[in-house]
């Protein structure tokens, strides 16, 4: 009698490294996401509109509290748990996962690590409850990978206030965020500093970027700052240079590696399900050698990705994870993800380009995940410098 098919993409059992309570909690989260969030995802992606009802649903899950337990339920989760949580969110919908990641990782992370205690107490409790949504404004129209050295947005001290001028681009949540962490170069000392710009501040405008083919639900904005005045109390007090910004990016870069894994996992799940259900030439296409070759290559990539991200989180838990390791994880997993989604779309044939079968969304969204939080080339140069001791940055 043949063995039953192995449907789990976690072929080597990495989930078993979690505690039983963490596995149970993730199972509950997955069930909730499948029931409450997934039905919203494809419609929102198709219309390029943000489903604001998801904010209440994410708040109910207390997603924003996991990395900041002292402001949440007080229960400290392992870094491995937060990695698997990212996998689950991206498995449901990468756009909605980006909304959550920008809010909790980039915006809250900047305030938590870059602000003083008064600033944390002032903003983070509301952000944990998702009563106030955050955004992170770093990238500029003329500065993506080179924004560290080429930042044109400026900050000028004027008494007890700062005056911000410049432009930002690709700012997730930017059209509706209540708090936007804006990075600007101090005209006095040339160093990059962080500022929390609150919704309604005069001189701040955000315009939605239209025509995207990936992460269509994410409300990316072009932001213009014209003599925007913020008080000294809104300057992140622990940020003194771009190195402090880079610490936040290094923290979230490992999260993008998990995001890539979640995208790949879902593409594989969809492809495997389709392969055993789709009948051609009198039998399921999963019974053909070339289809099985595609599935095995996909599973091999996913297994390798699991190994990288799980080990990275173990190192983070030990306090020894480095920016270079996070860079390698991001570059490697997003490259392997790109292969997986392409093979999955190929397996679906013509059905792979319509939203009805869902794989088209993951195929398109993978392109954005591949590009943001440092391109493959930039992360490659970070790792290349680490292993040679020589900088190849232009």
From TrEMBL:
Lineage: superkingdom: Bacteria
PROSITE patterns: ACYL_COA_DH_1, ACYL_COA_DH_2
GO function term, MF aspect, one: flavin adenine dinucleotide binding
Acyl-CoA dehydrogenase/oxidase N-terminal domain ranges (all copies): 20-130
GO biological process, one term: fatty acid beta-oxidation
Domain Acyl-CoA oxidase/dehydrogenase middle: 135-228
InterPro entries in UniProt: ACX4-like (IPR045008), Acyl-CoA_DH_CS (IPR006089), Acyl-CoA_Oxase/DH_mid-dom (IPR006091), Acyl-CoA_Oxase/DH_mid-dom_sf (IPR046373), AcylCo_DH-like_C (IPR036250), AcylCo_DH/oxidase_C (IPR009075), AcylCoA_DH/ox_N (IPR013786), AcylCoA_DH/ox_N_sf (IPR037069)
Keyword annotations of the record: FAD, Flavoprotein, Oxidoreductase
Sequence ranges assigned to domain Acyl-CoA dehydrogenase/oxidase C-terminal in this UniProt record: 245-387
Cofactor(s) for this UniProt protein: FAD
Protein family per UniProt: Belongs to the acyl-CoA dehydrogenase family.
Protein name listed in UniProt: Glutaryl-CoA dehydrogenase
Biological source species: Saccharopolyspora flava
């Amino acid at each position: 009698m043949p063995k039953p098919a192995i449907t789990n993409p976690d072929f080597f059992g990495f989930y078993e490294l979690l505690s039983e309570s963490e596995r149970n909690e993730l199972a509950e989260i997955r069930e909730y996401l499948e029931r409450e969030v997934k039905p919203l995802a494809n419609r929102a992606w198709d219309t390029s509109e943000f489903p604001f009802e998801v904010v209440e649903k994410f708040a109910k899950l207390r997603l924003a509290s996991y990395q900041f337990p002292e402001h949440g339920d007080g229960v400290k989760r392992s870094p491995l748990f937060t990695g698997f949580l990212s996998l689950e969110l991206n498995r449901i919908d990468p756009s909605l996962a980006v909304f959550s990641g920008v809010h909790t990782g980039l915006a809250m992370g900047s305030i938590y690590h870059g602000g003083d205690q008064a600033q944390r107490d002032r903003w983070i409790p509301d952000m944990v409850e998702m009563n106030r949504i955050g955004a992170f404004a770093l990238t500029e129209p003329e500065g993506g990978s080179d924004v560290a050295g080429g930042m044109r947005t400026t900050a000028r001290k004027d008494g007890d206030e700062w005056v911000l001028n410049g432009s930002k681009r690709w700012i997730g949540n930017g059209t509706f965020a209540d708090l936007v962490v804006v990075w600007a170069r101090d005209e006095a000392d040339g160093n990059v500093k962080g500022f929390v710009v609150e919704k309604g501040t005069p001189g701040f405008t955000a315009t939605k970027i239209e025509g995207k083919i990936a992460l269509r639900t994410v409300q990316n904005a072009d932001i213009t700052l014209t003599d925007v005045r913020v008080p000294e109390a809104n300057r992140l007090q622990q940020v003194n240079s771009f190195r402090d910004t880079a610490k936040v990016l290094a923290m979230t870069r490992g999260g993008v590696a998990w995001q890539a894994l979640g995208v790949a996992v879902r593409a594989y799940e969809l492809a495997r399900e389709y392969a055993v259900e789709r009948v051609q030439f009198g039998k399921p296409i999963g019974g053909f050698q070339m289809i099985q070759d595609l599935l095995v290559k996909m599973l091999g990539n996913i297994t390798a990705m699991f190994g990288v991200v799980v080990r990275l989180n173990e190192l983070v838990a030990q306090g020894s994870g480095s920016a270079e390791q996070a860079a390698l994880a991001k570059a490697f997993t997003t490259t392997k993800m790109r292969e997986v989604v392409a093979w999955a779309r190929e397996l679906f044939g013509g059905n792979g380009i319509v939203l009805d079968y869902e794989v088209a969304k993951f195929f398109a969204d993978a392109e954005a995940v591949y590009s943001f939080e440092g391109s493959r080339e930039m992360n490659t140069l970070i790792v290349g410098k680490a292993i040679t001791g020589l900088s190849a940055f232009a």
